[in-house]
Amino acid sequence: MSIAPAVNAWFAANRRDLPWRAPGFGAWGILVSEFMLQQTPVARVIPRLELWLERWPTPADLAASPPGDAVRAWERLGYPRRALRLHAAAVAITERHGGEVPSDVDALLALPGVGDYTARAVAAFAFGLRHPVVDTNVRRVIARAVVGQAEAGPPSTRRDLADMQELLPLDEQDARQFNAGMMELGAIVCTARSPRCEACPIADLCRWRAEGYPAYEGPRAAVQATFAGSDRQVRGLIMAELRASDIPVTAAELESVWPDAAQRGRALAGLLADGLAVEADGGYVLP
User: Which of 111, 132, 222, 230 has the fewest CB neighbours in a 10 Å radius?
Assistant: First the structure.
């Protein structure tokens, strides 16, 4: 039995009121939101998204600003390379597509920083096209409800898209709602640690539940190093100093950011290599 009707009915009644779901929310806003939502909680994205779109309501507006302005406006959303890639995408949209976000998946994939998930999310949610949209939450729901295992295991783009394609309703509007509904279901009900099976609209169709919630015994994705004390933390501290200053920050001033000179140097070198910082007038600034 298809899980789509139950998921869509549940989503229609329980969907969160999020800015990018509002009627008339444009393709550019949806693209920006997808960049911001990568590995960042919704609650942190909403206020930053609103400020961003007030300042740069179109791709051309962002493209006309220096990349460093985008990095500074990114504030503490994390992974600031996303800000540079979003700026580069705005430039590409302005130069290649007349300032309009394209609807074609291949054209979206050709934009800087846009991968399989983001391209299909924009095509589906901004333009209503029938494409499978797969994020971590969707993979988890499919793994449990359809495959019957507690976790999805390491991602595989080809397999994951095929699994979602098989479940996707034929009608474009139903498909759009199902994409959003599966993401919502995984985000607030079929969660990784404490799934609320009693509130799940497809509990009676769930293979994992029917088989007694067997433990996952398959391969696992690599675990990232903890944040505290990591190079990522040091990079973030250096970035905060650069964002807060309108003049070059000297190497001597950066010494107060982190005591370990080797790790500080490594983090700074990484920022320079990634284009998130540049040398200027004896110090370092945003690009």
Answer: 222
